[in-house]
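Record format v2
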Amino acid sequence: MRSKSTQPPVATVLSRTLRSLMLASAFGVAGAALAAPVKVGLALDISGPFAALGAEARAGFALGIKQLGGKLGGQPVEFVQADMAGSPDQAKQLVDRMIQRDKIDLFSGPIGSNIALAVGPTLFAAKVPYLSSNAGPSQFAGAQCNAYFFGTAYQNDQFHEAAGKFAQDRGFKKMVMIAPNYPAGKDALGGAKRQFKGQVADELYTKLGQIDYAAELAQIRAAKPDSIYFFLPGAMGINFIKQFVGAGLSKDITLVTSGFSADEDVIGAVGEPMLGLFNTSHWAHDLDNAANKAFVDAFKKEYNGRYPSVYAAQAYDVILAMDAAVKQAGGNAQNREAVIAALKKANYASTRGSFKYANNHYPIENFYLRVIGKDAQGKITNKTVSTLLTNYGDTYSDKCPMK
Amino acid sequence: MTGILFLEQLLNGLGFGLMLFLLAAGLTLVFGIMDVLNLAHGSLFMSGAYVAAQAHQQSGSFVAAIALAVLVTVVVAALLEVLLMRQLYKRDHLAQVLATFGVILVADDIVKMIWGPSPVMAPTPAALSGPIEIIDGLPYPAYRLVILGAGVLVALALYLLVNHTRVGMRVRAGASDRPMAELMGVHVGRIFNGVFLLGAALAALAGALMGPIVAVQVGMGEQILIPALVVLVIGGIGSVRGAFVAALLVGLVDTIGRAFLPMLLRATLPPATAADLGPLFAEVAMYALMVVVLIFRPSGLFSARA
């Protein structure tokens, strides 16, 4: 290609334009505030094994961002969003890019604990606060805890400890437990066993994303338990419940689960067979507090009247937490110490009600028993039954050196 | 371990294998005859499941839902064939993989636009929702028996079609040596169109049948495509018989790996080691089978070109 000598090369034109643009923007904001826009990296699971959960989280993030007018703590925000398809490798690359190219100030998004563990160290090294909108791996709760990590939602084991307590209170004697073979699966069964004192007849670990559970159901039938504890988030749980009911096991065996396998995404796909299923969660859409009511109403209005799931609530919560932290840090997200100190106070109107962080930056919060029933319109959904655990922390915090 | 448990696991393995066969049969013929690797086959499976779920909910008739699912998917496949696949026949495998992988992404997004990102409900027909006592002490899900029956029927029909009809003879001829078949006056291109649509119909049937027992969700096609490709490789490219034997083998090995391997490990190793190794072995059992087969028969069990 040959250009006329009178015309400057393309590269020069581009760099000139860029320079003038940068100058213009620098002058533009100079009068308002010194801080550059806050950059928030959101790694989403729009495809892959956690696609439905990731879509719910995205709906929650989007609602929070919309309500705040696209600002955090009054500062303009740029959200860097990307899909990492539930793949730890892809997530790692994505986070590297967000840190190096986009220079993000805050991070959130991953659904799976395996992803959280994959991206955590990179973020901590770059001193980017990571507010986990879902995953709460035990690894980051104990000896490897980190000042830049906030398990905003929960610590994995807590959910399952609550379910174990329910099973214990109910007087179940013999239980089979089943979970996928990945970090959160191990946390799940470990947590449930901590509170359930009866006999655990068998522990089954399955492939993440398994489709067919016939082999496991046959083993369960042979073990003759009175209850099953299952932690199979997303589609895995849908497959399992459908096949469990089809196998006729629901007559003699009670299913017990955490809120992950009994939320709106699963209910919509399974329908009637879910009725009467007990499950545990730190949040429910009928939880009685002003922030939650406002959130649920706004969510239903935004998304055709459907109930929000726990993933949407947690994502929304993360946006509120970021907003409060940036505000309390004086609007400067680059002052990381101030942001961390503000995050740690958890001084915002959370949809779960007020809570505190333990020394390891995991919440000390209530866990509730929910049961699936029908609402006033005959729609199948969760109802809160009782509080199982009050101001409940996790079991790893004493191993964490942070104060 | 009782005989009943063993029998039940055997049935489970066969059921899973037959479903894989429905998917792999079309895949192996398309790959065998035209040398086209169609990764979007899983998307046709997903299309079948979604259409059947929707039609079943609205019409209440399961049979009509399956018929509609097959019909719609065949139309989609015909469009795909005309618009895209024809451009790919002469390209190399990398181009085919890239293009059909692109189709997967597009298909997932189209499904997301129509049905949303959350899994949809595919009801089990009421009459088949419970278990049936096959022999004393072994209640087996009625619906899974239907799947077993349907799988066997389709396999039989395919066997008759491929091995005992004139069309089938041409298909086999095209698969084993395409230039020779063309020289002998076989319109391999036209045959391929038919095979492609037949493969799509089988994938849709598998999707419609699997819907009530698995999650009907975006990406379900990719999940099952991987074992289907394993079946393709083990069975030998282009061979329906190979796909059948390999599908049953993969179904059985996968089930045995999940059901009996952990038991065996627990009986022989310390519990902590067994608990760690069991799930690991179960996950790789299918691939281990593939490796063993490839060591002894590099072109698969019954390759049409061997």
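The first strand of chain A starts at residue 38 and ends at 44.
The two ends of chain A are 64 Å apart (CA to CA).
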